[in-house]
Design brief:
The radius of gyration is 28 Å and the shape is globular. The longest helix is centred in the last third of the chain and has 55 residues. The protein is of the alpha+beta class. The chain contains 23 helices and 19 strands. The strands form 4 sheets. Strands 1, 2, 3, 6, 7, 8 and 9 form a 7-stranded mixed β-sheet that branches. It has a 6-stranded mixed β-sheet with strand order 14-10-16-19-18-17, covered by helices on one side.
């Protein structure tokens, strides 16, 4: 009999239930204090936890353990060590100590560091993140950890995220105390990241070198049918896909991932999975697991899961909507509008902190989603534009306008809004439709940051959200803690913030060309590409932000700038090399042979009947031959420019060269090759078409 959801959920996780049931009471209390209050974990306690955790893992069939971490590669890393230790007489015992639980020492030499460590300095350290539960994956006990250098610098995505959560907790607590929330002891941000992806048949995938090497199609003419009919979105799920989704849910539930929603997305072969929100660092762990499991489970069904932001030209790409909010340990969502004046005042202050943060640090938010893959998606009328703005909806926007102008709000009472005074009207959550063209949209009690790319870790984006909002709350608390008239100062602070930062609020169509001009008039940034965005990472205000809140040191920030530039260049270079390889080994030889075949046919036909009609053959030979020449010349230029790139040593200049010259070369080569595809017979075209890729899973 198949296991129920209740039996499956968390069965591979050393979670709260297992801790409470298996650990001695004193050990459990000490571990809870570490998890909830950040208190150091005593080695004796760690030894007990490790012993119990090992016993549980062995019961689950585990033979190895690993410190599971997230280096600056976008994927997770793990090194497996067995539990076995030698014993006299040639025997072995199963051991796992508190020291092994708390700290590991993997070889750090081959992970990106951006100059934080030299290649010959192999030492790196992993340290247990006790706030994220250990779990069993593929017979291995996985212990979520951070990853740092010998000198303590962060070499991963998670360390900074945890630091940012501490930062927003400190500043939010200051503000909450001013509102009389004496029962609140901690504040955490929460996230529910929606994950979009494509599923294609593995046999088809295996015939596309571009998909194998880069995750996206570098060539491909538009199929006769795409997403024009809007018939795929929320449509009936195909049996093969449904079987994949069922197994994926089972695997994720075992790992404690709150997989909730599944459906077809807009583009053919595109789908989405959405979890229930959870604490941000756990959500980041779970999203990494989700992406890994999607790819593993897909292979069991002879499918391939594509997580690239733009695997197919001409159809919607894939994003990752980051549903972000702020909650207290007492269960209060601080972005919930509420129904009383008192609650509204608190809500409006936190709302203003978010508004100010998004405006002040719009460049950083854009940087968090900057990648070679996401550059193809942002601003393509299928995803948010590259311009950062906020959607609040009509109700909230009208309330903020009334506060700014000290004017009557069109409510039942038509009173002038005064924060903290009983004339503040009650209002419900904004009931207007979500603005799917907005990068940062308020959706009732949370903000949906929609710019994230489907393959990226959510850690970086949430690090910036947490830290930037923490800074604005710090500024607010500094003012409010010194005032003698809290209500008047609060009202003026909110009014002033609205007036100074309302430019970031835009409730209209982000796809409309007029928005680009309007955004420019407002002074908003339009950072179209990754190199454009990264140019702002080390701006003084950004360095000051991270160093003030101890999220990144200037050295760590400089390292990340280097890593991101290097990654951008490497990705585009691999794509360019793959294009050359496919052009010269697949497309050009195949089409040259096809032209030769048609030419021979013309000769054979005219030899029998001199005036026979060979218009089709001649036109095809003429058209393909012209395109073959153009493709050959484009490939030669791309090769020359790639050779020139090797002489550029400055990373910023190199990224700019790839952004302009190399990408332009690649576009020219693709146009020539793609233009041949409609002219060639199906059996002569060397790779599966878009039609087969997008519609072959039935």
């Amino acid at each position: 009999m198949a296991a129920t959801v209740m039996e499956l959920y968390g069965s591979k996780v050393f979670n709260e239930h297992e801790m409470r049931e298996r650990l001695p009471s004193s050990t459990y209390k000490s571990l809870k204090a570490t998890i909830e209050k950040g208190q150091p974990l005593d080695l004796e306690v760690a030894n007990v936890v490790a012993s119990v955790m090992k016993r549980w893992a062995i019961e689950q069939g585990a033979t190895h353990y690993t410190h599971w971490f997230q280096p600056m590669t976008g994927v997770t890393a793990e090194k497996h060590d067995s539990f076995i230790s030698p014993k006299d007489g040639g025997k072995v015992i199963m051991e796992f100590s508190g020291k092994e639980l708390i700290q590991g020492e993997p070889d750090a030499s081959s992970f990106p560091s951006g100059g934080l460590r030299a290649t010959f300095e192999a030492r790196g350290y992993t340290a247990w993140d006790a706030t994220s539960y250990a779990f069993i994956k593929d017979g291995v006990l996985c212990i979520p950890t951070v990853f740092c250098s010998y000198g303590g610098e962060a070499l991963d995505q998670k360390t900074a995220l945890l630091r940012s959560m501490e930062a927003i907790n400190r500043q939010a607590m200051r503000v909450l105390k001013l509102f009389g929330n004496e029962d609140v002891t901690s504040v955490k941000t929460t996230v529910g990241p929606e994950q979009e992806y494509f599923l294609i048949d593995k046999s088809t995938f295996d015939k596309r070198k571009d998909l194998i090497f880069t995750g996206r199609t570098l060539y491909g003419a538009k199929a006769p049918k795409g997403q024009e009919l809007d018939d795929h979105y929320f449509g009936a799920i195909k049996p093969r896909v449904a079987a994949f989704m069922k197994e994926l849910n089972d695997e994720l539930w075992k790992l404690g991932v709150l997989a909730k929603t599944e459906h077809n997305e807009v583009a053919p072969a595109q789908h989405e999975m959405a979890p229930i929100f959870t604490t941000t660092n756990i959500a980041a762990d779970h999203n990494q697991l989700t992406m890994e499991m999607m790819q593993k489970v897909a292979k069991r069904h002879n499918l391939v899961c594509l997580l690239h932001e733009k695997p197919f030209d001409g159809v919607n790409g894939s994003g990752k909507h980051n549903n972000w909010s702020i909650s207290t340990d007492t269960g209060v969502n601080l972005l919930e509008p509420g129904e009383t004046p008192y609650e509204n005042a608190q809500f409006l202050l936190f709302l203003c902190a978010v508004i100010k943060a998004v405006d002040d640090y719009q460049d950083l938010l854009r940087i968090t989603v900057a990648s070679a893959g996401n550059d193809h998606r942002l601003g393509a009328n299928e995803a948010p534009p590259a311009i950062v703005s906020m959607f609040l909806g009509s109700d909230l926007s009208e309330i903020l306008e009334a506060i700014e102008k000290d004017s009557p709000y069109d409510s039942h009472e038509k009173e002038v809004l005064r924060i903290g005074v009983h004339t503040l009207p009650k209002f419900q959550r904004d009931a207007t439709d979500r603005n799917r063209t907005s990068p940062f949209a308020f959706t009732g009690n949370k903000f949906e940051f929609r710019m994230l790319g489907s393959s990226e870790s959510i850690s970086c984006a949430n690090t910036v959200l947490n830290t930037s909002v923490a800074e604005e709350l710090r500024q607010f608390a500094d003012v409010l803690e010194e005032t003698e008239d809290f209500e008047v100062t609060l009202h003026e602070l909110i009014r002033k913030t609205i007036a100074e930062h309302k430019r970031i609020i835009f409730n209209g169509d982000g796809y409309d060309a007029s928005w680009v001009k309007e955004a420019e008039k407002r002074g908003l940034l339009n950072l179209r590409t990754t190199p454009d965005a990264l140019a702002h990472l080390l701006d003084k205000k950004n360095v000051d932000l991270f160093t003030m809140h101890n999220v990144y040191s200037e050295t760590e920030l400089t390292a990340r700038h280097e890593v991101k530039l290097e990654n951008y260049v490497k990705v585009v270079n691999i794509e360019a090399q793959t294009m050359l390889d496919m052009a010269r080994k697949d497309y050009l030889p195949a089409m040259a042979a096809y032209v030769a075949e048609l030419s021979a046919g013309i000769s054979a036909k005219t030899a029998v009947i001199p005036d026979i009609d060979c218009t089709y053959e001649r036109d095809t030979v003429r058209g393909i031959s012209a395109l073959l020449g153009a493709a050959h010349r484009a490939a030669a230029k791309l090769e020359r420019d790639l050779l020139e790139a090797k002489s550029i040593s400055n990373s910023v200049e190199l990224a700019d060269f790839f952004k302009t010259t190399i990408l332009d070369d690649m576009a020219a080569l693709r146009v020539s090759v793609d233009s041949m595809e409609p002219m060639a017979s199906t059996d002569r075209w060397p790779v599966p078409s878009y039609g087969k890729l997008l519609f072959d899973v039935r």
